[in-house]
Amino acid sequence: MSSLSPLAPGVHFLPGAVNSLVLEDGRGGALLVDTGLDDGHARKLLRGIAELGLTPTGILNTHSHADHHGGNAFILKKFPELKVFAPPLEDAIITHPILEPIGLFGARPPKVLQSKFLLAPPSPARLAPEPGLTRIGGVSLELIEVAGHASLMYAVRVGGVLYAADALFGPEALAKHPLVFCQDSALQKEAAARLGELEGVAVTLPGHGDPTGDLPGLVAANLSALERVTDAVRAAVRAGEAGVDDLLARVCDALGVQMTNAGAVVLNRAVVSAHLTELLERGEVGLRVVGNRLVFFPEA
């Protein structure tokens, strides 16, 4: 019996804090979609496909966050001939992962921001094919652009199975992390809504959470969570002009979030910044420099 769970004939996943998708090529090979946070996850993934008599034919990373490509290096040590594919921009970060914490911190990050959660080992990623029907590692699949959570991200569809990556989160993940991570909150909402319009999806696997047959319900839960954050950021600005860090503290208080480490602060700071940009573009808030500080204020 394999440690992988079946989703459809030839389609499996490794459950975990981050899910990995396994797509059979029908000839004893398998494309690995997202490899998890670290060597431990990657080891389980290789064990799972071996239990099914499969050998990896390639790696597809849906985006560049460390918990989705942190297992690449371990797998490439075992199978150095494998090619790693990723969307544009994301391929550069997977190849040069220091770009991730640099982007969050705004400069060379201190050691506390170089943990495995923010800085994965490098792996030589190349551009994945453009969105649409394609073949990777001998497997036919559909790539769907779902930017928002990351600068660019792909969901993967095979028949009636949709791997939404982090365009959609499971209910438990949404409850655990009220500040749903995104780099562009407007695009994240648009991506979730577009996935909800897909027809013929029998089962949806989020990047974090259990598979579900209720795609519309999952989309609705994610859109509600994202709007809740937008509402909290809007309310924080209306409470009085402030910089991002003060607004972050107000939002955390409103949503019951308690940050205890530097990584959580820079990640959640990015979330608040994303929603501020959305509100700026809507004309609901403005920004200006006051006393050498960049502050946001409510527009009349």
Describe the model:
It holds the Pfam family Lactamase_B. Residues 17-208 form the Metallo-beta-lactamase domain. This is Beta-lactamase-like protein. This protein is α/β, with parallel strands linked by helices and 300 residues long. It has 2 domains: 5-167, 4-Layer Sandwich (Metallo-beta-lactamase, Chain A); 233-298, Arc Repressor Mutant, subunit A (Orthogonal Bundle), CATH 1.10.10. 37% of the residues lie in helices and 23% in strands. The strands form 3 sheets. A 7-stranded mixed beta sheet has the order 1-2-3-4-5-6-7. Strand 1 (5-8) and strand 2 form a beta hairpin. Helix 9 (244-255) packs across helix 10. The relative contact order is 0.11.
Strand order of the largest sheet: 1-2-3-4-5-6-7
Spans with pLDDT under 50 lasting ≥5 residues?
Answer: none
CATH second-level architecture of the largest domain: 4-Layer Sandwich
Structural class: alpha/beta
Largest beta-sheet details = 7 strands, mixed
β-sheet strand percentage: 15-25%
Shape summary: globular
Q: Classify the helix fraction into a percent range.
A: 25-40%
Q: Total helix count?
A: 10
Mean pLDDT: 98
Q: What's the gyration radius in Å?
A: 20 Å
